[in-house]
């Protein structure tokens, strides 16, 4: 819609149909940048055809509200430039560029926790995540994705643990009563900072994946904050009160 100057309500997207060509799928942080890049290339081909019909260069072509024009050229409805339906195909495949440049995404996490000196209970007070992943295609969904990853990391660090029966190996806490995920009361106000950037090496649409970025360092940041708060360095998730209590100093011991 953006590249062809059409209202979004006049754009139809078809996904999940076996009659369509195979795509990268939704996973591994490659969905939007891969499929989106193919769409981008198809739209570029359409723009080139329209520019030729209008008698201008592709870079000079302007499209908006179903009309095409360029500097010094009167606006014309796009339909007048077409003698038949215009169909173009965009295709993108894995290339060798990743062998030459670093195409990774980056994130940094900052959090503040409080550890109860008597019970070993950890409470998260605030958390901020800053992320750089190329062009931000949709700020609302990207922010939500990063928030979800941060909550997931908090659960990994503090509450979530699978327990297995040592006799036969079956999972004994396969319900939400025994497998503890964070709830609203566990999550404070969190801030997500999206670093807008353009990476021409990453993809034609200058975007990179954001899927797993929100979780990658979240649990580690919580662990570092616990160490900073009480001096206990744990290397085993989740960092539940019983693990902390074994190492916390006696709060009733006289000061040295």
Describe the structure.
This protein is an alpha+beta fold and 256 residues long. The chain folds into 2 domains: 8-94, no CATH class; 99-245, Aldehyde oxidase/xanthine dehydrogenase, molybdopterin binding domain (Aldehyde Oxidoreductase, domain 4), CATH 3.30.365. It contains 4 helices and 6 strands. The chain has helices at 31-54, 139-158, 218-230, 241-245, and strands at residues 62-64, 67-70, 73-77, 106-115, 122-132, 190-194. A 3-stranded antiparallel sheet has the order 1-2-3, with helices on one face. A 3-stranded mixed sheet has the order 4-5-6. Helix 2 (139-158) packs across helix 3 (218-230). The chain is elongated and about 90 Å long. The model has no long low-confidence stretch (mean pLDDT 90).
